[in-house]
Amino acid sequence: MNKAIHLVGISGSLRKGSFNTMLLKTAGSLLPDDVTIDIISFADLPVYNGDLDMPARAARPESVKKFREVLEHADGIIIASPEYNYSIPGGLKNAIDWASRGENSPLLGKHVSLMGATQGQWGTVRMQLAFLPVFNTLKMLHINKFEVFVSQAQKKFDADGNLSDNDTREILKKHLEVFHKTIVHQ
Ligand SMILES: Cc1cc2nc3c(=O)[nH]c(=O)nc-3n(C[C@H](O)[C@H](O)[C@H](O)COP(=O)(O)O)c2cc1C
User: Which atom of ligand 1 is nearest to the CA of 118?
Assistant: First the structure.
């Protein structure tokens, strides 16, 4: 019997009508039935401050402890994020930084799927490139097969927030299949 897989999903955008949150929810709906996903937010994390983190880790803010704990129990993470000024949005990078410290970082060696949607032409390619050194330093297991770059997102989701563009859906499905297989066969 296959081991049940549990994932955590993070959207890099907090706004209500976020295309990336829509993309993340679509990804969640395309996963096999035995895979569970919890979509979590970094909205309540403070701005990173080393005085609140190491060396007195027990003193980490409650929101940070909870965020790290949820990640710790995940077999993998799906990140769907916009590109801000050609890079990783600050709020998302802040959340990664909070989760990254210490030998017990829940990110170390974790499977990660990265995707992004933008209303521009380049489908978050620069944000995704900016993530590569972050994944590398945290030894995160990133898959780059069937990369999900959603350009002109305003044309690709319907009024209910479903990804209605068939080509993009196909790429997303293939990407998730590879991600799932990678975790199952780890
Ligand atoms: C601060 C900021 C910077 C942005 N920089 C870029 C950028 O570098 N490249 C790009 O394609 N879009 C950029 N955008 C536009 C976003 O792609 C667009 O607003 C997108 O819808 C945001 O994702 P969301 O719908 O998930 O909130 C930027 C938007 C903001 C708010």
Answer: 17
